[in-house]
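The protein record quoted in full:
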Amino acid sequence: MKRSNKILLLLTLAVLIVMTAACGSKKETAEPTPDPGIADGTYIATFTTDNPMFHVNEAYEDKGVLTVKDGKMTIHVSLQSKRIVNLYPGTAEDAQKDGAELLEPTTDKVTYSDGLEEEVYGFDVPVPALDEEFDLALLGTKGKWYDHKVTVSDPVEGDDINAVIGEGSGKEAVAPKELELAGGEHTAEVTLEGGSGKATVDSPAVIRMNGDECIAVITWSSPHYDYMIVDGQRYEPVNTEGNSVFEIPVPYFDSPIDVIADTTAMSEPHEIEYKLTFDSATVK
C-alpha cells in the first residue's frame, strides 16, 4: 500500500474515533431536569384555567394534589363531570398528530357538602413550572379538541385538599359599616359554594344599606327553594313566580357566610348547606 493511502486511512480512522467519542459524550451529558424551585414531596396547589367551563370540581375549590419527584411535577385534578375524556399537555393541533401521548382519565369519587356523591373524571397533568401559564388541550365527548391555558400556583405542603380548603381564604371579614356606604341600593359580586355545584345565584347581587344594616337580594337559578336559614333565622321567598328570591342579612363581606337553603326539587324537601361570599372590592 502506498504511503499516501496509509496516511489517508489513518486520518479517516482518527476522525471516526473522534466522532464516536463525541456522540458518546453527548449521551452521557443529557440535559439535566430543570429545578422546579420546590422540594420533592406532596402539596395541595391551586389549578386555574382560562375558561369557567373547564375547571376543578366545585367540591375542591380549584385545588389539586401536586406531586414533586426527582424535580418533576404532576398535579392530579378532579374535574366537574365525565364530559372531558382526554387532556393533552400542549396545543389542540399537536394533540391530533400521530404519536401524541394523551392523558387518560381516572374515575374519582367526590362528595359535596350536601352529602351527595358523584363519579367524575380526574387527570394527572404534568406541570412544567409553577406560577406560569402553560398549554393544556382537552377533548370533549363530541370528539372536538379545544385549546386552553392553565396555571398551577400556591402550593401548600400536604395531601389533604379538604384540610387546606377548611383553612379558608385568609381574608378578614369586613363589617358593612366599615365600608361607609351611603343608604339605599348598591350591588356586589357574590360567590356560592357548596351543594352539588349545579345551583347558582345571580351575581352581582343587589344590596340595600339601612344605617349599619345590610340586606342582600339573593336570586337562585331554580324556583324550588322554599326557605333559607341564616344565623338560625328562617327567611321565606319574597316572590311567588319564577326562580326563588330571598332577602337576607349580610353580616360581613369578604369571608364565607354559612347559609342553609331548602329545596323541593328532590323526591322530598332537603336542606342543603351553602356558603355565600360578598366581595367588598366590587361594591358599587
Observations:
- The helical segments are 3-28, 92-95, 161-166.
- The first helix runs from residue 3 to 28.
- Residues 25-30 have pLDDT under 50 and may be disordered.
